[in-house]
Amino acid sequence: MKQDLAHDMNHVSRVVRTAKSLCRKEQAIAEVVVPAAYLHDCFSYGKEHPKRRESSSIAAGKAVHFLEEIGYPVQYLNAIHHAIVAHSFSANVLAQTLEAQIVQDADRLDALGAIGIARCVQVSSSLGRALYEAADPFCGAREPDDGTYTIDHFYRKLFRLSAQMNTPSGREEATRRTQYMRDFLQQLQGEIDSEFVVPSGEHK
Questions:
Q1: Among 85, 78, 83, 88, which Cα is nearest to 103's?
Q2: Angle at 117 between CA 36 and CA 134, to 5 degrees
Q3: How confident is the model at residue 32 (pLDDT cuts 50, 70, 90)?
Q4: Alpha carbons 136 and 187: distance in angstroms, whole number
């Protein structure tokens, strides 16, 4: 299944690195966390596909089948399956183990910070969404409509992720990355609203 631009191998690599870090800090089982992180997006429907919520379940099944074929220790397979199913935001499955919570946190952290901004713009651009609504770019007096405007996705989903993190380490990092995104919006607002005059002699 072809992945969208924001779910390429660079995304997988970042999630794996973050998951390994969280695994060490939270003293989780690496034999579950690491393969689940590597294989969490081995199958994914597109953003607007009607069966998108089924993606993580299908990915989990494919991942376990692959691991069985290569002789991965069987005692970890159920936990890996659950971690992959639960990582997905759209699936809305409760992460019931520490390992699943770590994979979920690692995946959601990749939606925040500088890389989160870039990925949000990538996906929105591929779907033909405008950057912002001209009359109210930052949803001051309207409900966010992230099906139409890129910046609205910050308010609809991304700014809520830090409060939904499972682990203390994930929550701390999510808070830091979310603040970076808020600072970005402040800068964007200044650029949208600014009126400036090019000094004499510098106009070309």
A1: 83
A2: 140
A3: very high
A4: 16
DSSP states along 53-78: GGHHHHHHHHHHHHHHHTT--GGGHH
Q: Is the dihedral of CA 80, 90, 160, 114 positive or negative?
A: positive
Please write the tens of the pLDDT for every residue from 146-177. 999 999 999 999 999 999 999 999 999 999 99
Alpha carbon of residue 153 to chain centroid: 12
Sequence-distant (6+) residues with CB within 8 A of 43 are 1, 55, 58, 59, 62
Separation between Cα atoms, residue 199 and residue 194, nearest integer Å: 15
**What pLDDT digit, counting tens, does each position of 101-133 carry?**
999 999 999 999 999 999 999 999 988 999 999
Length of the chain: 204
What the block records as the tokens of 41 is 């997006």
The residue whose two tokens read 């397979």 is 77
* Secondary structure class of 193 (helix, strand, coil): helix
Q: Which amino acid is at 14?
A: R
- Please state the φ and ψ torsions of residue 149, each to the nearest 5 degrees: -125, 135
Instruction: Give just the sign of the alpha carbon dihedral 120, 146, 128, 57.
Output: positive
Provide the whole-model pTM. Answer: 0.88
Q: How many CA atoms lie within 13 A of 62 on its CB side?
A: 14
One-letter identity of residue 188: L
